[in-house]
Amino acid sequence: MPQASSPIGVFDSGVGGLSVLRALLAALPHERFVYLADSANAPYGERGDAFVAARTHAITQYLREQHDIKALVVACNTATAAAIHEVRSSHPDLLLVGLEPAIKSALAVTKTGHVGVIGTRGTLTSAKFGKLLASLADQAHFVVQPCDGLAHAIERSVALPVAPAAHPVESTETGALCKRYVNAMGTFGTAPGEMDTLVLGCTHYIFVAHELRTLVGPDVQFIETGEPVARQTKRLLDAAGLLQTAGSAGGNLSEAGTDATPSVLLLTTGPVAMMEAAAKRWLNLPAEHCRSVSVR
Questions:
Q1: Which of 136, 137, 119, 116 is nearest to 197 (CA)?
Q2: Where in the chain is the domain with CATH 3.40.50.1860?
Q3: In its keyword annotation, does this UniProt entry include Glycoprotein (predicted)?
Q4: 178 catalytic, yes or no?
């Protein structure tokens, strides 16, 4: 049985879920984490539900058997939509946290009542998201835009140099895709009838926040899911008596053993070099934290 000292599992189709892991690390500084990127099969957003569900089950089983996780954060909107109900049924004893585009949070901040939502096609065309959207349709006007190829482009960009801020947005593949989809949505701004809020419905998208900000302007509010997911994870662990604290037995000192930074293991089914680059860029973690694994 998992103990308080057992790690928290986090998984995504690729490196996008590192944005959620970053929020978890900030909210739960004494926990251990095992992150798994299924990069060999990314992106999930353009695959069928059956495939995504099968991978979600396989990865959940792997993390339980190999790492004895005490909780699992499904840091992927598409996997949550396709499979989390099945995972709850198959693993009723596992603390489970999923993601969905945070359109409820957008309602709390929009002043114009016009909200943009971007995500993968798999997420935005899912029955789960459709039900959520329908339940809130009378409270705001939502413009929903699938962004085919954007998550995959963000994956590929991790090994590339960061483009200087002065460069045109469309000078990079990610920037060109952001421009295409933002332009297709309509007008952003704070005037009546304009979208003053943008929901980032894919964990990858926070990593192109600069490009999106350049396109929609300084006054549009971005809504993403990392911090709410971290708060929910903390609540569940606390309620279950599994929250790791500074004085808990089996603490998670760093490899040097001198400071109480979280112990983080980053696994990938794809090229380990991509994970190493992402870990350095977005978490400031060295390559020693990254490993390549096979999950069947």
A1: 116
A2: 8-99+226-292, 103-223
A3: no
A4: no
